[in-house]
Design brief:
Blueprint: H1 2-21, H2 29-35, H3 43-53, H4 56-65, H5 67-77, H6 88-95, H7 99-111, H8 116-132, E1 140-144, E2 152-154, E3 158-162, H9 180-183, H10 191-203, H11 214-232, H12 240-251, H13 257-262
Parallel strand pairs: 1-3
Antiparallel strand pairs: 2-3
Helix pairs in contact: 3-4, 3-7, 4-5, 8-10, 8-11, 10-11, 11-12
Amino acid sequence: MKKASAFFYLLTFLMAVYCVACDFKLKSNEEVEASQLLKVQRYDRLQSRYLTTGDFSALQQMNTDYPIETRTLLEDMLQLGEVNDAQINARFLNFYQDSLLQVIIADAEYQYADMSDIDKQLDFAFTRLQKFLPSMPLPAVYAQVGALGQSIIVGDSLIGISLDKYLGADYPAYAKFYDEKQRSSMTRKSIVPDCLVFWLLSHYPMKNFETASQEGRDVHMGRIMWAANKAMNTLFFKTKYTVLAERYMIKHPGTSMESFLQAE
């Protein structure tokens, strides 16, 4: 009993030291729930139901619950026509009857049956980002299955994740369309970094991008990637220009992230 008691007190002491070091505090259930700010909306599941079984109720729910997402997919990504076109639903269904797209839908739904890890990473990163950039709103995030086009779609308040672009560097179909370097980033671990980069770029676009030099573009992208690294609290992006951004901010500790991203 004495040994057990001593072990208990030692364990309690170590836990106390660990909690202080990490600025840890116990949270109530309400606090835990409140911290879950971001959760991927599974638009892709409704999409899959309609495109693989022709379930009209799934299509109705897509149009009712996700009108912006559906319009973006049909009109902007797939360019099948206007969402209120009488023939749009048939064109949408027929488009995805392609054998490769049917396989991609099935593989995406299998690989991403559980996205709780993505939810946690998004919540952590965007909560941190909002601390650095208090005026930046938090986006709503949803998953979809595209047609091997855009990876991330960004709107005024939305981020869409195209799961078909994150099936793994060794996914067989990718070899036909993408080189090795492109495939290396088409993985699950790239989803959250890509969401951050595209979201940051939408709020801090480069001024005079069309006339800027390649060096200027690289510098701006380096700053965006540096900010994404800070949000994730990890060095995911490692380039010459993220290193330069980090060095600059170390030398200028009074510079805010916002002013740094806005600088020309």
